[in-house]
Amino acid sequence: MKRLLALMTTVCLVAVAGLSGCSPSEGTGGGKRTEIDFWYTWMGDGSTSMKKLIDEFNRSQDEVYVNGLAQGDLRKQMTAIVGGNPPDLASLPDEINLASWADKGAMMPLDAYIKKDGYDMEDYLPAARDAVTYEGKTYGLPLGMNTWMLYYNKDLLKKAGFDRPPETIQELKKYEAKLSEEKNGRITRLGLWPGQIPHVWMQSFEGRLWDPEAKKVTPLDPGFKSAVELTSSVWQKHGPEKIDRLLAGNGNYGSPQNPFATGKYAMTLDGEWLAPILGKNAPKLNYDVAPLPYDENHPEAKNAGYINVNLLYIPKKADEPEAAWKFMSWLAKKEQMVKFDKALGNLPPRKSAMDDPAFKDVPKFDRFLKYANSEKMEPLPSLPFMEKYMQEIHKQNDQINRGKVPVEKGLKDVETKIQPLVEKTMK
């Protein structure tokens, strides 16, 4: 095969083994190693951490050698797969494309490998397993996980007379009204930043975007509609022009001028990655995080929330799928997962990694880990048209927020645009 015929031009020194003059494809026993190409989407710190793990794996055994490449362009991944020259292993930053790619035959199901090795998928949180499953088959291994919680400025809440975060949506609205401030016709502080797309909020209302029995998209589901109305009400109350003016003056998200760090937002929905950023850039900020508030008319929605995962997958027609499985199954084990997720500030999707001591010094991770472990966590439905569905929701949600389209019409337009894709892709 092409990788087994690679020229042995790279000289390496393995001090521990006392070897010299070996190529990457040579094992310590002098035999050939199977080389695999791994395209991963992480950049920056994520790329640095992944390189370390690849090096660790390459040093740990004599059978497989991994050539890693930071490749963030998903179109290039699909082009390579369609062209019949894919990498042996690749990653996706989230699961939104998984069902579509699996439906097109671009990804290999992993169930045979999982069964053969007795790979412990039960150690993954149920929502993480659901995120990489399509039509009963497993197409990826989750490596990292994200969820969103309510960040709140404790000093601003106390000043407004609140001694705890809001627990219900009804309380949230009261908090938002009292915490928001305007001066000379300009917003100086938003009680709640309403920028999150409503699917992050929909579990608070027991909202649904899909009816699996009827095989219909449900953007007009009462719970999802309520989530849209929650965020749009903030936009309409303060005015899109004023909010846009506030946004134009906001500092960079990853800097000390982050709008939550500077007090421009008293509350905001954000992921676990923000806490380390605040720890670095705003160490004196007196804040905490809490589960998403839930609609008091749906008490069963308490501690419900949304998660997504990043994942590893084997492209269809990969030259060396078994070698790729050997590496990916190693990479997704608890020990390697903990190293990688801590470096990225992501949550581990394995139950056994939740209480790992490595996360104890990561700001607010104990809150996020406890919340993510709720049995009420859900990913988006695994549907082959989900990316287009979300694009249409984003488009109409923006029109609704800006008062250009009524909520009912905007969500009906989503249904009209997306339902034909159901008939086309789910025969």
UniProtKB/TrEMBL annotation:
Record key words, sorted: Signal
UniProt-listed InterPro entries: Bact_solute-bd_prot1, SBP
Signal peptide residue numbers: 1-17
Cell cycle found in the keyword field: no
Tagged with keyword Cell division: no
CDD domains xref list: PBP2_UgpB (cd14748)
Pfam families recorded: SBP_bac_8
Name under which the protein is recorded: Sugar ABC transporter substrate-binding protein
